[in-house]
Design goal:
The chain is mainly α. It has 17 helices and no strands. It is globular, with a radius of gyration of 23 Å. The two termini are 28 Å apart.
Length: 338
Amino acid sequence: MKTRKKGFFEMLKTKMVLLSVATGFFMLSGAFYAPSAGAFGAAPEGVPQELWNSLSAAERRAVRNSSAMQNLGNNRTQMPEVEETPPVSAEERRRARENMRREYREHLQGGQGGGGQDDIRNMTVDEIVRRSESMTPAERQAFIQNNRAAVEQRWHTMSDEERQQLMRYGVNNIERYRGDWDNMDPAQKQMLLLELQGRWQNMSEEERRQMTSQGIDSMQKLYEHWQSVDPEQRERVQEDVRRNWEALPEEERRAFIQNRRRDVEDMRQNWHNKSPQERQAVRREIQNRWQGLDSRQKLELQRQAQEALRNMDGQQRQQLQRNIQEFSRDQPPSYGRR
């Protein structure tokens, strides 16, 4: 009995690490995934908000970077057409989105075979970036799914310089979207969070599993790349992460920790709502993934779990133990905040 519980505890630790990694991937990836329309913050002075929301990412960046926009406060006559542009109606924006999606679907249907001028295998990094910025998040996902082999082949044929260029684009995206988030008022942030939550809730279980699996697979590749990085370089990266954390105001650190605790509470509630059969399916999936790891990967995950345990205080360890006991049950327990 002790052996079974110990084995399940190891699987649970693996699940926690994998879910955290997958969550981090979807939060931080910037090269192919981007916030939906509406996450653009307040429009610059003199630009109607609806017009600003209707622009593409490249157009918004061009407006922000333009000298005319920078000097708008000093010389309002430089851009009279912006102030006089009538707001774009919701219906016009809806029609424009529908037209763009229809054209994109036609493009996908006409170019499945690959090999033409629009094939990603023939694109430069600049062309890939431009194509990515012209897509909505859903279109990016569809493109990757429909052209997965070509995307992976293009990555493997890139030079180190091209890969670094593409990764810099991803990092710049993260910085830009973080700036958009910082410029939102609390009401806008709440609306965006509700929209993202609604998207997840509207997905089927199969779609959620597929998205989570894609995130885990991508993070596995990143993990393998990280293991190949020079130890001295890894130490520099880790030191940068530590410095950035220490530079955060105490208030932001507390908010971050509280958000992670809420995530754990949501996971507990989700597990509580599953039937015994669903729980067994989750356990089997965890066990299969664990068995698919080599000994080095298992040791690394165990080391990370042990390090996380060392960093917990007594109250956190007690809560973790209660969670483990609850997750190990097949019958739904009585649930309430402790």
